[in-house]
Amino acid sequence: MRSTNIHLSEKSTSEGETSGDSSSGSKRDKGRVGWTSLILWNTHQNDVSAVRKLLEEDWQLVNARDYDSRTPLHVAALQGWIDMARCLIEHGADVNAQDRWKNTPLADAEGAKKYLMIELLKSYGGLSYGQNGSHSDPKPVLPPLPNKCDWEIDPAELDFSTSTIIGKGSFGEIVRANWRGTPVAVKRILPSLSEDKLVTQDFRHEVSLLLKLRHPNIVQFLGAVTERKPLMLVTEFLRGGDLHQYLKEKGAISPAKAITYALDIARGMAYLHKEPNVIIHRDLKPRNILLVNSTADHLKVGDFGLSKPINVKHANDIYKLTGETGSYRYMAPEVFKHRKYDKKVDVFSFAMILYEILEGEPPLPQLEPYEAAKYVADGHRPMFRSKGCIPELKELIEHCWSADVVKRPSFLDILKRLERTKESISSDHHWHLFST
After folding, report:
1. Residues catalogued as catalytic
2. Is 187 annotated as a binding residue?
3. Whose CB has fewer CB within 10 Å in the chain, the N or C terminal residue?
């Protein structure tokens, strides 16, 4: 069981990712993390002095929330930090705040059997309620949809005798295996984490999401193992690997091929962003874009572990983001600054990816991922150096990574612009000068 849900266990650190918070706990690191991340981390460390100083500077941080809507008091309650809880309550903490599972701090304390904490919270009017009970209480993974028989996979059908690891994360690994004679990709949760409700909630979230997705440019979900341990999520296996590795080996590619790739990504994202049931990917980057085959003909968008489904009632709806979510190097400024966001955060990430495709190297490679995100949040952008970046694509990238969210085009608009550019360079007899 993880001790807290401020997402200290990132999915990966290779691109400077964070799934809700940065990992720093001292005052000297204050400039390197968001205020929300800092107070949650110090609470987790039971550093009452540091938390008190933060609250003296900004009392509203007492009810700060990570992207799971957990407050510092949730963290303190789960850990049983009595002095920390008193400090937070004295500074106005909402004793009955609910996280995304609708659990209160008292529900967490009861689930963790922190009896002194239970008494303390009750003395301040704490109530015990939640949608699914305390998430520290291990429970079986419930089926995301009633037609479970359609996609539940018998683990005996998965052949790992010649399996190879193709990816690793904090919760497990992704391996190439065989299912009924067909190569597949299997995301396998570590057995030690299969009873952790936080992990199983995230697993269930991703399964629920993938069940609903059907598009040629989205990695195809095949099934999952939810009734036995370890938990496993099975998708199609794409032989071409990921775009990150491909660009690392090939470098910059021609505008013609770049447009083909950009169209594939934009088509998948336009499908995800279709209203009213919008899905914001929140971690769009080359590692999460897969090549269909070894000839690198087409791309598919994958990895929906951080994706967030939103029901849009109004076209201009925005959503509160309280933690840094995604990969720093491709992160939109509003995400880094913990400001409100909408689906245009994916458009910004798309711009950074298209830049990398054309330039042949990641954005701002001279900077560490966090420093690159901070540099971009301060209003700067990567410089165009490659002669292969034709004006139409350069202009599109600049619009997509605009600091003004309103000026960023939708993916449907991006598709139209890319199609026009494709026609333009196809009819131009000089376009072959840019080809690789």
Report:
1. 283
2. yes
3. C
